[in-house]
Each structure stands twice: as structure tokens, then as C-alpha cells.
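Entry 14. Structure prediction run on the chain below.
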Amino acid sequence: IKSSAASDVYKRQTFEENIMTDKDNVKKQYENYKKQLDKINDRYSETYVKPETDMPDSLGLKTVDYKMPSEDELRKKAETALEADRQSAISKIGKETEEKIKKQSALKEQAFAEAAKRLLDIDSEREQAVREVKNDALARNIARSSIASEGVRETEERAAALRRDAQAERDGTAEAIDREIEALKKQASDSLSQTEKNFLSRLEAETEKLREKALEEKTEAEKYNNTVAEKEAEYEKALEERREELERREWERLARLAEIKNRQGESALKSMKQKEILSATKEFFDGLSPADALSLFLSDTGMQSVLGEDYVWFLNYLQTRKNG
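Output returned:
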């Protein structure tokens, strides 16, 4: 039962959709029929009808508005493209130099630390040596003699000489390290100068490259705009020719109508027009079902004006067709 009900609903929906489709088709056919009547009226009009080309006024092609960048703009663009590499090179030089200087400074601190320890050891050894000299003098009972004094003096002098040597070695190492640090700074300065020279050289090359590219784009834009202008000119020429052709046909139409009117009279001209209207009307309504044709004909109050004397005849024709 449910399946049967669903089938009935589907059939009803399909039927309603078909009705809507048929109505849309009839509406489109009716609009085309009215347009055909307008064309017949225009064809038999004895007044000048300005021709319509059914062509747009132009192709509507858009030109390219290309502005050649200035030298400053090109250079700034080149700088932007190269700046990251430049900063990377500068940063690398700075970091490498800083690391090397840190190592040298550490070596200098190490030299001072070792020298300080050495001096302490010398002082300790001196004190030990002086005590031994004095103790030996006491043991020999010559503590107040010149021999004892000479022994202490010699010990002090040896210690002083060792201190001078240690300090000289420390100061020499420090001076060598300072010279190395200055050399590293100069090397870094030279590297930075070379980096700047390389940057300026690359900047000129990159600016020239961008300039050439911009000139190519300008040439392409001009070429494209010229093509657009040529196409629009050709189209305008074709449009003008089409207008002239339609203009000629319109005057020829008026001339033919005038000739028919002069030879056969105005009634013959009206008869020819009415035959075409009746033929177009019959062709349209014959394409509909008899019932729809009669219903639509009666609903259009303008049909009597369209058919004139043929209105009654055509109404009888549709009624006879419907009644079968």
C-alpha cells in the first residue's frame, strides 16, 4: 500500500513538472511568434527603420597600463633582493671574528693565570731556599757571617731573575695575542670592505637585470596594446561596413515597397503583409494542441488587431480544429 501511494505521488509530481515544462515551452514559442510579427511589421513599414547591427560597439578589449619603473625604484628593488645575502655575509664575518677574538682573549687570560701561578711558585721556592740557607748557616754556626748573608742575597737574586723571566714571558705572550687580535680586527674590516664592494658590484648587475626585464615588459605591453588597437580598428571598420550594408538594405526595402505600391496599389501591399501575418499565426497555433491553441487565442485581446479581417475566419478555424 505504501509503495502504491509513493508511486502515485511520484506520478503526480512528474505530471505537474511536465505541465510546467509545457507552459514554459509555449511561453517561449509565443514570445518568438510575437517577435516574428514585429519583423513582419518592420518589413512592411513605409517609414525608415534605423537598422540594428546586433553587434557591440567594440570588442571591449582592455589595454595594459604599464609604467616603466624609475632608476631609484629599480635600485631599491635590487637592494631588497640582495640585502639578505649582504646581511648574512656581514653577520658571518662578525660572528667568526668574535669567536676568534674570544679564543685569543682566553689564551691571554690563561697566560696571565699561568704567570701568576709561576710567580707564586717562585716566591714559595725563594722563601724555602732562604730558610734552608739560614738553617744551614745556623747549623754551621755562621748565621751572622758574610757567608750566610751572601747565600741569602744570591737566593733572592735568583728568585728575582726567575720572576723577571716569568713576567717577561707573560708580557710577551700578551703582546703577541694583542697583535693577533688587532690582525683579526683588520682582517674583519678588510672582509667587510670586500663584502661591500661585492654587494655594490652585484647591485649594479641586479639593477641592470631588472632594467632589462622592465624594458622587455614595456615592449610586450606596447606590442599587446598595438595589437588591441589594430583589432579594435578592424572591428570598427567591419562594424561600419555592416551598418552601411544594413542601411543600404533598409533603403532598398523602402524602394521595393514604394514600387509595389505604385504598380499594384496600397491594397496589394496590405494584402501581402496580412498573408504573412496569417501564415505566421497559423504556423504558431498549429504547433499547439487544439484546446491550448483556442484558449490562448481567446485570451490574447490583441489578436483581433493583429489579424484584422482574418480574425473571424481564424477563430472559426481554431474552433473547428478543437471540435474535431
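The first helix runs from residue 2 to 43.
Filed with the rest of this week's runs.
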